[in-house]
Design a protein that fits this description.
This protein is of the alpha/beta class. 42% of the residues lie in helices and 17% in strands. The structure holds pyridoxal-5'-phosphate. Residues 38, 40, 61, 82-83, 206-208, 222-226 line the site of pyridoxal-5'-phosphate.
Amino acid sequence: MDGIDGRLRENLTRVSDELAAACARAGRSPDSVRLVAVTKYVRADIAQRLVQMGCLDLGESRPQELVRKATSIEGAVRWHLVGHLQRNKVRLVVPHVSLIHSVDSDRLMEGLEGALSAQRRVADALIEVNISGEAAKHGSDPAELERLLTRASELRSLRVRGLMGMAALHASEAESRHQFERLRQYRDRHQERFPNLDLRELSMGMSGDYPQAIAAGATIVRIGSAIFESVE
Ligand SMILES: *Cc1c(COP(=O)(O)O)cnc(C)c1O
């Protein structure tokens, strides 16, 4: 074990411990939250070491980088696209992606459905909702959710499984918790409205705010810098 492995293991242990503590405080089982390690800060060989340590859910924010790492990293990795997806990148990413966290328009849903069915594949997706109110953030307006989920109900190859959201950049702990609670409420409300869909997943929480997201009901947290800090 060299220095890189040691630091990576140390960071991973710290994050797993904090995640378990946040689950305990919320009265939840640690198995109820999936950790997606966001590898966008590191080279493929560093991400490969994480796979060897048992992290099999890896995320990237850019489609090209996801494809690059997915084709060079070995192991049964489930790849998550957590960043914005343009329609002209859909065909590129579809052969590699397991869960797309950032679907925010019906045109993108239709592009994905077309590419998936042409390639005889299926993939899961989340609808990204703008919960911070920040204009610069991607994500659909909450008022659009009903329309997007109506369209999602008609798809066969793209399976919408829940919602994704990001808290505002400089939000306090209380503010981010409040924004995450709101995402859960949108999910609960629309799950009732769309009993034919299975909207179990809530992807929310990053290095700076995952304890608040877990308190609010996150089922997936997307963590990068806390895992890779001082590794390279
Ligand atoms: C980079 C990124 C993350 C991870 O962020 P950290 O703060 O480094 O944990 C999570 N989600 C998205 C959409 C990202 O782009």
